[in-house]
Amino acid sequence: AKQLGKNNYQLYSFTRDITSYKKYVLEKDMRKAIEKEEFEIYYQPQVATSTGVIKGAEALIRWNHEEWGMVSPGEFIPLAEENHLIHQIGDWVIENVCKQIRIWKDKGYTVRPISINVSPIRLMKKGLVEFVADLLNKYDVPAKFLELEITEGSLLKSEKNVLNTLDGLRELGVKIAIDDFGTGFASLTYLREFNADTIKIDQVFVQNINEENKKDTAIISSVLHLAKGMDMKVIAEGVEEYEQLNFLKQKECDEIQGYLFSKPVSLDIFEQMLETGYIK
Ligand code: C2E
Ligand code: CA
Ligand code: CA
Ligand code: CA
Description:
Blueprint: H1 2-16, H2 18-33, E1 39-48, E2 54-65, E3 69-71, H3 73-82, H4 86-107, E4 114-117, H5 120-124, H6 128-138, E5 146-151, H7 152-156, H8 160-172, E6 175-181, H9 188-194, E7 198-201, H10 203-206, H11 214-229, E8 233-237, H12 242-250, E9 255-257, H13 267-276
Parallel strand pairs: 2-4, 4-5, 5-6, 6-7, 7-8, 8-9
Antiparallel strand pairs: 1-2, 1-9, 2-3
The structure holds ligand C2E and calcium ion (3 copies).
Ligand C2E is lined by residues 44, 60-61, 72-74, 77, 90, 93, 117, 119, 179-180, 203, 238-240, 257-259, 264.
């Protein structure tokens, strides 16, 4: 009876701690994942709202873990931010994308700018500008093909380092996008101060586009109006339905990104899209 009690306890404890166990395993394995080439970059096209032509893509990391299968970045990026491996992982993504752009140019594709997510932690550490400059040089890639996505939240910290880094990147010719716009309470003054090229309207607003949700559509309309006045491009994220597309078309939103056109796809599939410039 004592033995059974112990097993029961272990079972209970295991179930309760499955998330922390997974967290433990992922964290341990993350250190070797780059060497083991378990990370992969998927690309999600960003298309012109009016024509459906591919104008760019967002690079989204995937981790093919030997035991757990595909692990979503929503799960491991926060861990990597906690244990600081985000620096190594983030650098790997930037280098991989630069290398890929070189390959596309050599293959003769019409290359579109690729957006890369930069963690606020990476943004605050010194040396990002030099790192990016060296890579553009190494792979002979024009800076205009890179766009760095920075969350609205990380701008709110408004550290001097962050501002200097953004200035340095802009001087290189790298584009800056404000990600998840509308979720971080950044004021309009921030938009002017950061001088971003692109605003990405967060998917929560896009998913509420319908007759009943006047408030969210009002937010989208005013962001579009404002962006136009400040010469910024607007991308709506998370577009899944025709109703949303039609609304965004009518409001003259520049580009859209979402499952309606394409999920993030592997390199092979993205290259097929690049060949024609359209999503088949
Ligand atoms: P994010 O930057 O906001 O990226 C957009 C997320 O929305 C992606 O999830 C994408 O697959 C998803 N998405 C796109 N269209 C739709 C749609 O129509 N409907 C819905 N429901 N979802 C859509 P994913 O790839 O799982 O990435 C999650 C988050 O992980 C990203 O959010 C970003 O914050 C982070 N992340 C991904 N890759 C990287 C990376 O290389 N570096 C860093 N630092 N963070 C990354
Ligand atoms: Ca993003
Ligand atoms: Ca986003
Ligand atoms: Ca997000």
